[in-house]
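User: When convenient, might I ask for sequence and structure tokens for a protein?

AI:
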Amino acid sequence: MDLQPQLIVELAAIGICTGFLAGLLGIGGGMVMVPFITFILSHRGIDADLAVKMAIATAMATVIFTSVSSVRAHHKRGAVRWDLVKGLAPGIVLGSLISSLGVFALLKGSYLAIFFGLFVGFSATQMFLDKKPSPSRQVPAAAGLMGAGGVIGFLSGLVGAGGGFMSVPFMTWCNVAIHNALATSAALGFPIAVANVAGYIVSGLSVQGLPDDAFGFIWVPALVIIAACSVFTAPLGAKVAHGLPMKKLKRIFASVLYLLAAYMLYTGLSG
């Protein structure tokens, strides 16, 4: 696939915007990228089923870079709950590998798009309603955290997101402050991305019909351009996040997710 100037500009714009949102919302940027990369690939002759899968895998690969940039900014403000990262990470890695090595390759792209839309829409509703958790509810013990991590990693692998759409509501449900939840979610994006990307590469190597510039399911040019741009704007998003009130931050998070869910539902149903 030729890298025309227009395509480079489009991918750079995605990187700039998603990097900022990654820092602002702790979502790794993956969920923002998937609809846009799907659109770009579909309009450049890639089969619709492969376009969705390549978009999910490529978006997840960029999370490796945006999560590092974002979490550094959050860590400087002391917002990351590293105890939660340690408890959730083992389950996240296991769930991610199961998802990306097996289930992802077997499902049709249209099914993945519909699942993306439904699940993200549900997560947005929970966040938008701002339901208050029971004051007595606390973060679960080690086994509970590992189980929660497994679910987060598995579902993240199916939709190409850094896990913020699951981990942020989970942590706020356990009475973790929203700013700490967003910062911790950014840190969790790294193990989620590394484990899933390994699975996407292995499971995609034998797939027919992928373009020459793909590595497994990952579209390499998009990864390079988006990652190069997003690492500069993620710290800015993190800085803005710490200056916003809690309720407004949740509403921003939910509004972004609703838009993405609607597009991917349309893509899946029309495919």
User: Anything to note?
Assistant: The radius of gyration is 17 Å. The chain has a mean pLDDT of 83.
